[in-house]
Design goal:
Shape: elongated
Number of strands: 5
Structural class: alpha+beta
Radius of gyration: 23 Å
Strand content: 15-25%
Number of helices: 3
Oligomer: single chain
């Protein structure tokens, strides 16, 4: 769970966890979150903060909506020497192709397939007379 569990009825910011067996009411309905009998979370305490959320289809959604919100977290850390070596030797990885498509779509330019090509191309394009 992203939120801390609530076992104390005196918790001020407390919300029920919806039961997967009960249809969800409309988002801003006063009875949003038909509770499981003893399952509550503290809405004032979160363990994780999503970087972005996306509504995605769910195959076996049961009584809940076919499209549900999924929260995603992006992990960042310095690349290790092993990571760098693996990336340098990888010619055809999906992430690299996705980055290339995004760069081409965002800039309307195509400076090649390597980071060095893009750095050089962008430097020329952003120069005062470029």
């Amino acid at each position: 769970m992203c939120h801390a569990p609530s076992y104390d009825t005196s918790d001020v910011a407390r919300a029920p966890i919806p039961s997967p067996d009960v249809p969800l009411p409309q988002s801003f309905s006063p009875d949003y979150g038909v509770p499981c009998p003893d399952s509550f979370v503290r809405v004032d305490v979160t363990y994780l903060r999503p970087d972005f959320s996306v509504m995605l289809p769910v195959a076996d959604h049961g009584v809940w909506p076919e499209r549900q919100r999924f929260d995603f977290l992006v992990r960042t850390r310095p690349a290790t020497e092993r990571d760098a070596a693996r990336a340098a030797s990888a010619e055809d990885v999906p992430q690299k192709k996705a980055i290339q498509r995004a760069l081409r779509a965002l800039t309307g330019q195509d400076f090649g397939d390597t980071a060095a090509d893009w750095r050089a191309g962008l430097a020329v394009a952003s120069a005062p007379n470029g």
